[in-house]
């Protein structure tokens, strides 16, 4: 298939890049919650603006706070391995967190901190408009699955409009617990199939939307 890029698509891509850069700049100077006072660097998130898959973790840890980039410590190395097994690289996905600044001592983010930070995540989701969102851990899961238990629903995709949300364990937890590690590996291994199905559905929908005299015939 020959990929063609129209002027409108190019403009759309530029708009996404600009919006993501605006969000990142605001995050870097954000004073909206207590975490601003203890962070070294805010961590807006990074990756491909045209990603089909977006992954949302909990919050920056020590190395992320030091470098200003998401998932660069041990959990990040494990995440890269999981992505590689799913045939994905960090360059083709977008990775961010529920809170963009490190909770001191890696404590859980507090409800008012998550609420203060949520508009940044919402703008990132709206700009990238990914086909799949993978939630990593229970804090990012709870936006789409309030009250659910991760042990029960991990790996079970749910539709949110045209998007699929796939809840998964947090790689930092799964790294050191054998049972969770097997589960997160299995859940990541499903991603290629889900992506292929979405692609097939999209192609079928495109074909069906063509005028009948331009449709490919199967006979
Ligand atoms: N854990 C997270 O939830 N996010 C990171 O960016 C790193 C570790
Ligand atoms: Fe702002 Fe979010 Fe950082 Fe709080 S965690 S200071 S809301 S960017």
UniProtKB/TrEMBL annotation:
Task: Give the enzyme's main class according to its UniProt record, as a single word.
Answer: hydrolase
Kindly state which keywords UniProt assigns to this record, in alphabetical order: 4Fe-4S, DNA damage, DNA repair, Glycosidase, Hydrolase, Iron, Iron-sulfur, Metal-binding
The Uracil-DNA glycosylase-like domain sits at 44-189
Question: What EC designation does it have?
Answer: 3.2.2.27
Q: What Pfam families is this protein classified in?
A: UDG (PF03167)
Question: What is this enzyme's catalytic activity, as reactions?
Answer: Hydrolyzes single-stranded DNA or mismatched double-stranded DNA and polynucleotides, releasing free uracil
Query: GO biological process annotations for this chain's record?
Result: DNA repair
Q: Does the keyword Iron-sulfur apply?
A: yes
Which InterPro entries does this one have? UDG_Type-4/5, Ura-DNA_glyco_family4, Uracil-DNA_glycosylase-like, Uracil-DNA_glycosylase-like_sf
A Gene Ontology molecular function term of the record? metal ion binding
Report the family membership.
Answer: Belongs to the uracil-DNA glycosylase (UDG) superfamily. Type 4 (UDGa) family.
The identity of this protein, by name, is Type-4 uracil-DNA glycosylase
**Organism of provenance:** uncultured Thermomicrobiales bacterium
